[in-house]
Design a protein that fits this description.
Elements lengths: L9 H11 L8 H6 L20 H11 L4
Length: about 70
Amino acid sequence: MVIAGDPLNLEGLKKIISYKGVFKKGLNDNLRSKFPEVKLIILTEFIPNMEPLNGHWIAGFVTADGHFT
């Protein structure tokens, strides 16, 4: 996790680059050559909750927000 103030130093920059490697395009060759020591973050598998939604929660959400757009 990147904490406020981290990006202001080299370690903070390396942390941001390690997170960039998770994205679909990953790190480009330029970043890989400039920061070869950066270890990429490994994400755990996302397993969504497939339980039915509570109708009272949906009603409260729509009442508070007013619309889904």
